[in-house]
Structure formats: C-alpha cells, structure tokens
Amino acid sequence: MTSPSAHPWEFTDDRGHRASAPGVPARIVAYLQAGAGLHDLGLTPVGVFGSFHDGERADRAKAGGLPLGDVAYLGAGAGLGLDDVLGVRPDLVVALTYGGGQVYGIDPDTAKHLEEQVPVVVFDVGQGRSLADVRERFAELGASLGAGEAPAAGEGLARAERELTEAAGAAGGARVLALSPGGPDSVHLARPAKWPDLSALTALGVATVEPPEGPGANWHTGDWPDAAALAPDIVLLDTRANAAPREAYGASPAWTALAERAAVLPWNPELPPSATAHAALHRSVAQALRGRS
Q: What's the CATH number where 239 sits?
C-alpha cells in the first residue's frame, strides 16, 4: 500500500454518487463485509459496523481476515448512531446496498446526516450483480486509495476456478444446496440466482439446487423435511451469528438425515469481496465435490 497523498481524491460509487476528499482517505469505516474485503486489499478499516441482523459484537463469520481485536466495532442497525461513526474520525465510509441506493445496515436518517459530513461510497451487492462485478468494483476503490491484492491472489482465484470446474465435471452432477437455519421447524433455502457467490458456482459448472417457487426473493422458507427432500450431496450452511445455532435444530430427524447424506460446509452469504475470499470458497466446494466423485 502506498502512503496517502495530498492530491484531491474522488470516486463514483454504484449509485452514481461522486465522493471526494482533498487527499486520499486513510481512516476508513466500513460495513463488516466491506471491511473484510478492504482488509484483503491491504486497507484495514479503523472501524466497522454491522446490520440490523447483528448484535453488540462483530460477527466473526462475516469478518474474513479482519483483525477484530484491532478494529473498533461501532454497533449495528438501530444501535449505530452518527456519533459512533464520527467518533473514530473517518475520512471515508464504505457501505453496501442491495438495490435502490438504500445504505444497508444504517438507519436512513443516520445515513443521510453521515453523508453530509463524510465521503460515503456505496457498492451494490444485490440481485443482478455478479461476484466478479462486486470484486472488481472493490478493486477499483482499492486502486484509487493506493492499495490492491497481490498478483498471487488473482492467480490463486484463477486456479481455484479451474479446479472447481474440473471437480464439478468429475462429480457427475453432485448437487449443492445453500441454506440458513431458522430454528427447529424452519429453514431458509437460498435461490442460487439471487446470490452472487452461488451464481458464480453455477457458472463454473456446479449443480446448485433450486428450491420450490413461491414468495421470498432470495430465500424459500420451509421446514427441515423440505430441505431433506431436495436430496443435496453438499450443503452450504450459513454460519453467521443471525442463523440459528446447531443446538436449535440438531435434534430434527430431517436435519440428521440431511447431514448424514451430504457433506456440510460452512457458508458465509456475505462473502468478503476479494479474490482471496472468493478463491477460498471455490477451493472448499471443489474439495467437497472431489469427495463425491
């Protein structure tokens, strides 16, 4: 990473908003997922915040390689106030949106007042955005700030993509289902086309499982027998703090049957937007597919 420059800095985000500063920002506050991606680019935020799903502590599952002991956790959702963010003296805030320009994880009124005082860059990670799109936009921001992943990270991602395609072909159509536990009687089954990481797996030849049609743009909510009936060979299990813990559903006979049939891998639906994180996902799924071939 190069030293911050005194030259004027600007960046146009996915809302079409231009953020600017008299010099290259160095003190960054970010949504946790974004902060994990920036860390992989060589930019460790001074503070991170969570979403309305999060609590008083940073969700380790979403944090990637962030050194949480060295980064201030500022709060989440309604518990995140303007003074909490301004208190760490940021000169840039990096946030996400799932469409429509609404800043994710921050109360709209707080977001409005924040943007009046600090440059804010917002990236769209919603429907229609590919994993590569999101990763490349973060890389563009990193470059504008004088940072970026080492060439080895991109080379590692290319290798992981090749390995995954080869493993998917050798696995004879082994089926991958992504889900988020809701409790003893409910589970949320991911619609692959609505998630950039799952769409990337599909594009690389993985047979991702489509849940039944019905309400729910990103998820189909059903029960554990519904999940077991889909007969996946590999389960990507949401391990974020807002997903139900294993003790809440582990006694379900349908879950037991599912776990006995399928290889179960930890899954973070809010994957850090970096080549390092994306390669790790691809390698994990490739290894599981090789175990099924």
A: 3.40.50.1980
